[in-house]
Amino acid sequence: MNARTTVACLTLACFALVLLASGALGDASSPAGAPGEAQRKVASQAAGEARIADLSGSSRAAADPAKAASPAEVSERVEALEKENVVLREDLGKARLDVRTSLAEAEARRAKEMAEFQNRVDELNARLAAERERQARKNKDLWIAVGVLALGIIAAN
Fold first, then answer.
1. Per-domain residue ranges for the chain?
2. Which pLDDT belongs to residue 3?
3. Is 54 in contact with 61 (CB distance < 8 Å)?
4. Is 135 helix (H, G, I), strand (E, B) or coil?
5. What are the DSSP calls for 1-64, one per residue?
6. What one-character DSSP code corresponds to residue 32?
7. pTM of the model
8. Cα→Cα distances 130→44, 116, 119, 140, Å
9. Which residues of the chain have pLDDT under 50?
10. What is the separation, in whole angstroms, between the first and last Cα of the chain?
11. What's the CA gap between 97 and 107, in Å, rounded?
12. Three-state secondary structure of 50-67
């Protein structure tokens, strides 16, 4: 049993060491850039993705990239995004409701288990108190018997 515990501790220590080393190497390999460099990189990637989406999205944009989208296309796109936003908000609301429900159920289960545990503890404490009382009575009776026996021996002499 002691060998298993030692092996388990050594395994966990090795695992923690590997995680720390990989984190340190990951931090060391990424060069520290100037402040705001990450934001510029993300913005440039987003602009590139927007250009790709515009080029693949409409034939007019592919034919004339300098020309802006028409107001009708923009309004359609806005309406589509608003509908998607509504759907995502509903999904988020449902997910939040599910989480609240599961948390309430878990809290109810925990409260029930705690009540059962407390009842079990109270029952065991009552049994222990009864056993102590029984032992105290037994010891008292034993000492009374020893005293009566001692008095009887003294009286017989």
1. 46-126
2. 80
3. yes
4. helix
5. -HHHHHHHHHHHHHHHHHHHHHHHHHHHHS----TTHHHHHHHHHHHHHHHHHHHHH-HHHHH-
6. -
7. 0.39
8. 78, 21, 16, 15
9. 58-66
10. 62
11. 15
12. HHHHHHHHCHHHHHCCCC
> Would you give the DSSP letter of residue 157?
-
Question: Structure tokens of 118?
Answer: 């407390």
- The structure tokens listed for 100 are 């609240």
In the numeric block, which tokens belong to residue 68?
Answer: 């802006």
The two structure tokens encoding residue 33: 């850039």
**Could you give the CA distance from residue 128 to residue 87 in angstroms, rounded to a whole number?**
61
User: What is the C-alpha to C-alpha distance for residues 33 and 40, in angstroms, rounded to an integer?
Assistant: 11
What six digits make up the tokens of 32?
């520290």
**Spatial contact of 60 and 67, defined as CB atoms under 8 Å apart:** yes
CA atoms within 13 A on the CB side of 121: 6
DSSP state of 70: P
Task: Output the pLDDT for position 155.
Answer: 92
**Gap between the Cα atoms of 16 and 150, Å rounded:** 70
Report the pLDDT value the prediction gives residue 96, as an integer from 0 to 100. Answer: 94
Quick count: other Cβ atoms within 10 Å of Cβ 73? 14
Question: What is the pLDDT, as a whole number, of residue 1?
Answer: 63
pLDDT tens figures, 44-86: 666 665 555 555 554 444 444 445 678 888 999 999 999 999 9
